[in-house]
Design goal:
Number of helices: 20
Structural class: alpha/beta
Mean pLDDT: 93
CATH class of the largest domain: Alpha Beta
Distance between the termini: 50 Å
Strand content: 5-15%
Largest sheet: 6 strands, parallel
Radius of gyration: 27 Å
Oligomer: single chain
Number of domains: 2
Strand order of the largest sheet: 3-2-1-11-12-7
Bound molecules: ligand ME8
CATH topology of the largest domain: Rossmann fold
């Protein structure tokens, strides 16, 4: 039986304006999910939308739409964006789904029945027009951060979750499982900033927020949006529904991949809820860094009127989803922040995708056409140069597998591109055009071309989870459409005598200055 692997993104707040920064989590999860699938795992990849709360309600009002209609439109738009980016999820959960709503009510009831939730009074600073409570640190100049009006002290009846009971259990969890929360710097942040100063019980219901899931036994209360949202990781598998088979199969999650801004909710509140429910904890939570905008310098240094383009709906149709995926996966060191600039994106397109990968494929394919009428050659023996290339390729292949064990996607992608660079260097060294002119050069030429083709094959097999479109295109041309990768170490997978198909140019070279100018008109 296949080993299971359950991976999740956070569920997104509904927004019609997702930038490539928002797409980052979903793209990495997709790459990891695809990689695990190719390794033969039974993967379940879930993403979705977080649709409750006052802000959502207000946004719908502002748009002049009925809330559900407003949400349906945004969700359709988001799903279309994920399709555009080749996000191959297994389930898209919406917190307005009936089975989710039903299960969240049951989760709340269970926590109440077990004595982890109690009723008390919530005291706080309240903004009447906004109907929102604020903490002193959230205020701006002592006033409501949303509308700038005066706030007043107010009390509200509310339910509380006994989070204060979980401090020691959480410390033990982090100590016993050093890989539970990564990168480790985030553990220190949780321990020093939140747990050691003492956890307070968490207010988990509101009477002033109407757009949410009502407490089953006290419906004037709405369940706190984070209890509702975090539960999606269980309810999406059918937890507390008629059919719990997916929950039985896939829970606990193998990886919750989230941005660093929401680590506290996932590494403190979520395990506490699961402990209270007596459920196994997720195996790992990874808090990745952010994509930052460092745009201003660009227009100054270039002396053109350029604006940063961060809209995937402009970038993907123009440059392809593989290019956007590649840039995000490669450019942001996993776990740290990374800077975005349109110019860096376009430069990477030219240097890595066009000059390195695309050029290697087109050179190799056209040489094969010229020398062997596009037929994969059979080889009697390999020379020193070819053997060296093969061993370098295998070294990089091992690195990719190693990095992917810790989800270090940026290093894994860099290693795959090292494979293509090695092959380009090999071409310069082996000089097939010179060998072709030698009378007794046929065997050597076959060994050179075969080594290049197998290198491209291995590189593209590894690349498929990250850049599915172009990798699949090349593999199909090579007559390879195997689903799982098992034969990396064989340099003899391609079938001699078979003809490879010709490919159109994978990544046409861009005129960066022209593109920047065009993009600035579109944003
Ligand atoms: O937080 N760079 O949803 P969300 C990298 N609904 N990642 C970014 C980013 C950037 N510039 N901007 C956003 C929520 N993200 C909650 C989650 S889960 C039970 C509830 C990431 O739409 C962000 O860190 O604000 C998060 O991982 C994801 O986008 C969704 O953020």
């Amino acid at each position: 039986m296949k080993e299971k692997f359950y991976i999740t993104t956070p569920i997104y707040y509904p927004s019609a304006k997702l930038t490539i920064g928002n797409c980052y989590t979903t793209i990495i999860c997709d790459a990891i999910a695809r990689f695990k699938k190719l390794q033969g795992k039974d993967v379940f990849y879930m993403t979705g939308t977080d649709e409750h709360g006052q802000k959502v309600f207000e946004a719908a009002q502002k748009a002049g739409k009925e809330v559900k209609q407003h949400l349906d439109d945004i969700v359709a738009d988001t799903q279309q964006l994920w399709k555009m980016l080749d996000i191959d999820y297994d389930k898209f959960i919406r917190t307005t789904d009936e089975d989710h709503v039903c299960a969240v009510k049951k989760i709340f009831n269970t926590l109440y029945e077990k004595g982890y939730i109690y009723k008390a009074t919530y005291k706080g600073l309240y903004c009447l027009p906004c109907e929102a409570f604020w903490t002193p640190s959230q205020l701006v100049d002592g006033k409501c951060p949303d509308c700038g009006r005066e706030v007043c002290e107010q009390e509200e009846e509310a339910y509380f979750f006994k989070l204060s009971q979980f401090g020691d259990k959480l410390l033990k969890l982090y100590a016993d499982n050093p890989k539970f929360l990564l990168p480790t710097s985030r553990v220190n942040e949780m321990v020093n900033n939140f747990i050691k100063p003492g956890l307070e019980d968490l207010c988990v219901s509101r009477t002033s927020v109407k757009w949410g899931i009502p407490v089953d036994f006290d419906p004037k209360h709405t369940i706190y949006v984070w209890i509702d949202a975090l539960s999606n990781y269980l309810t999406g598998l059918g937890y507390m529904s008629q059919d719990e088979s997916k929950f039985q199969k896939y829970w606990p999650a193998d990886l919750h991949l989230i941005g660093k801004d929401i680590v506290r909710f996932h590494a403190i509140i979520w395990p506490a809820i699961l402990m209270a429910l007596d459920l196994p904890l997720p195996k790992q939570i990874f808090g990745h860094g952010w994509l930052m905008l460092g745009g201003d310098k660009l227009s100054k240094s270039k002396k053109t009127e350029t604006v940063e383009c961060t809209d995937p709906r402009i970038l993907v149709p123009r440059y392809g989803s593989d290019a956007v995926r590649y840039y995000l996966l490669r450019e942001i060191p996993f776990g740290s922040d990374g800077n975005y600039s349109t110019e860096a994106f376009l430069n990477r397109f030219n240097s890595d995708l066009c000059n390195n990968f695309g050029n290697l494929v087109s050179r190799t394919f056209s040489m094969l056409k010229k020398y062997f009428n596009s037929e994969i050659p059979a080889v009697e023996s390999y020379g020193e140069n070819e053997k060296q290339l093969q061993s370098r390729v295998l070294q990089e292949r091992d690195k990719v597998l190693h990095y992917m064990q810790t989800y270090d996607v940026s290093k894994a992608v860099a290693s795959i591109f090292n494979i293509f660079s090695e092959a380009n260097t090999f071409i310069q060294l082996a000089q097939p055009w010179a060998v072709a002119k030698q009378e007794d050069g046929q065997q050597q030429l076959k060994a050179i071309m075969r080594s290049l083709l197998e290198t491209i094959r291995i590189g593209c097999e590894l690349l498929e989870p990250f850049m599915p479109n172009s990798a699949k295109k090349v593999l199909a041309a090579l007559g390879q459409s195997d689903k799982e990768f098992s034969d990396f170490d064989k340099f003899e997978k391609l079938k001699p005598g078979e003809k490879i198909a010709q490919l159109s140019i994978l990544f046409p070279r861009l005129d960066v200055a022209k593109e920047l100018e065009e993009l600035s008109k579109l944003v």
